[in-house]
Amino acid sequence: MDGIGPGDLNIASLEQRAVEETVSELIMALPATTEGDTTNFYLYKRLHEKVGTISAISRGVAIGDDLEFADEVTLGKSILNRVPYHKTF
């Protein structure tokens, strides 16, 4: 979308490293944008057969943010990625 295509990314070296180092998990931490999501999906399609697990960092409401200002997508992601509450704090 910003004029950057797959050929502009250094994916071949990532692919090679994943195979040579027997990567058990790849954690993607790209921006929560359409471009970031598209890149995450592209990397998944390229690497899912070479890497044990592929995951992305969760998204949601940041600590200290007011829910009143959270958009629907962020709030939805927060609900989908919720974690059990344990009284271990």
Give a structural overview.
The protein has helices spanning 11-20, 34-47, 72-80; strands at 25-28, 53-56. With 89 residues, it is mainly α. The protein has a single domain, classed as Dna Topoisomerase Vi A Subunit, Chain: A, domain 2 (3-Layer(aba) Sandwich), CATH 3.40.1360. Strand 1, helix 2 and strand 2 form a beta-alpha-beta unit.
What distinguishing features does this structure have?
single chain, 89 residues, mainly alpha, two-stranded parallel sheet, 3 helices, flat
Topology, pairings included?
Layout: H1 11-20, E1 25-28, H2 34-47, E2 53-56, H3 72-80
Parallel strand pairs: 1-2
Question: Which CATH first-tier class would you pick?
Answer: Alpha Beta
CATH second-level architecture: 3-Layer(aba) Sandwich
Ends distance: 43 Å
Please provide the ordered H/E string of secondary-structure elements.
Answer: HEHEH
What is the number of E strands? Answer: 2
Q: Stretches where pLDDT falls below 50 for ≥5 residues?
A: none
Number of helices: 3
Fraction in beta strands = 5-15%
Summarize the structure.
With 89 residues, this protein is mostly helical. It is built from three helices and two strands; from the N terminus they run H-E-H-E-H.
